[in-house]
Specification:
Elements lengths: L14 H33 L4 H21 L1 H10 L2 H25 L4 H25 L9 H29 L1 H20 L15 H14 L1 H17 L5 H8 L3 H25 L6 H20 L1 H8 L4 E3 L2 E3 L1 H31 L5 H8 L1
Length: 379
């Protein structure tokens, strides 16, 4: 961080942070849009030759294809974020995303898109996320004074959550026009994210250790998490929420074969969690949490679990109560769709509390030389 910066000024008044925020915002919209489009295409292609259960399995496998590199590369990506210029790590991963989106656009436009290509794209997404996540998280504290770091974290979360809101909706609407349009817009958004990342000037980042013992440094990161009870407890508690969140990966199944709302309804459902999270993030940017954070996070995880379970059984609940479909302003509205959306909004708000607490504790209580490794474990 530039030492001439007023330590109490708002993060948005810092040019490097503005560029960081805009880069993350554009990139998040693109990632969220492409995730929805890829999932929808995989499920639709699978349903051409498979029943619902088999197609749902293929949808789960596309999520697994993204998770595997994220899981396997975690130790390495954290070390990379602590060893190299974090700006260049994000620039490199964003370039990979540009190429991936452009390739899917070309294959869709030419009519040669296959399930294999979609799975390869999912793996590329997983690799990019594995490296960009720790680098993005560890970069933010290098851009602002420590005094305003909690505010910067909340504002950074807004970029992510608003992007999460807009992305699925944009992806669903553009898919309804044509899949190649969705991929084309995603490619342009990734390019915008890349440009803003290049606009971030030099930042103060501790010099990388050069003891040539990468394995020892990886172990050092895990040891730090294990010995720091505050960080360990926060990550462990959040893990339970992550396990429950896997149900949302089946949104295309719910949208097409359970709620029957199509790609546009899928975009609305996928945006639901982002809506709740964005409202919560905006609140925290105005009123940062300062007391009883552990208790609040525990309550938030419980509420998150209840909301996800409600989403999963929304249709049986509606049938049990006896609610019937109706219309609002001439548009057909199904009670199960409304209940599912409300449940996802509540889940998003509760999840944002967990994200805010986890990121605040990690960024404030972790030495900068280890932020990448700790962020990799927590992502």
């Amino acid at each position: 961080m530039n030492p001439t910066i007023d330590p109490h000024q708002h993060p948005f008044r810092i040019a490097n942070f503005r560029a960081y925020w805009l880069s993350r915002f554009a990139g998040t919209i693109a990632v969220s849009a492409m995730s929805i489009v890829i999932g929808w295409q995989v499920y639709n292609l699978a349903r051409e030759t498979m029943d619902i259960r088999q197609a749902a399995f293929m949808l789960g496998m596309i999520g697994f294809a993204q998770f595997v590199p994220l899981f396997l590369l975690t130790p390495i990506t954290g070390l990379v974020a602590d060893s190299f210029d974090r700006r260049w790590i994000v620039r490199g991963t964003t370039t990979l995303l540009v190429l991936t989106a452009a390739t899917l656009w070309l294959l869709t436009w030419s009519g040669h898109l296959t399930l294999g290509a979609l799975f390869a794209a999912a793996v590329a997404f997983g690799v990019a996320r594995a490296f960009s996540g720790p680098a993005y998280s560890a970069l933010a504290p290098n851009l602002v004074p420590r005094a305003v770091l909690p505010t910067a974290i909340a504002i950074s979360s807004i970029a992510w959550q608003v992007g999460t809101i807009a992305g699925p909706s944009v992806g669903g609407l553009l898919y309804a026009i044509h899949p190649e349009v969705a991929y084309g817009v995603a490619t342009l958004l990734f390019l915008v994210a890349l440009v803003f990342m290049f606009l971030i000037g030099p930042v103060a980042q501790p010099a990388a250790q050069t003891d040539h013992r990468p394995l020892a440094r990886i172990i050092e990161g895990f040891t730090y998490v294990r010995r720091n009870r505050l960080v360990l407890a926060t990550i462990t508690l959040d893990l339970f929420a992550v396990l429950l969140a896997g149900a949302t990966s089946l949104l295309p199944v719910y949208a097409r074969d359970i709620l029957h709302v199509g790609s546009q309804g899928l975009g609305v459902l996928a945006a639901g969690m982002g809506i709740g999270a964005a409202v919560t993030a905006i609140w925290f940017s105005i009123r940062p949490m300062s007391r009883n954070v552990g208790v609040k996070m525990l309550v938030a995880v419980i509420v998150f679990g209840i909301a996800i379970l409600t989403f999963g059984v929304a249709t049986p609940i509606v049938e049990l109560i006896g609610l019937t479909p109706g219309t609002v302003a001439g548009f057909p509205i199904h009670p199960a769709f409304v209940l599912s959306l409300v449940a996802l909004i509540v889940a998003g708000g509760a999840d944002m509390i967990s994200v805010y607490v986890r990121q605040s504790l990690i960024q404030l209580h972790t030495p900068d030389v280890m932020r990448g490794r700790v962020s990799a474990v927590s992502q």
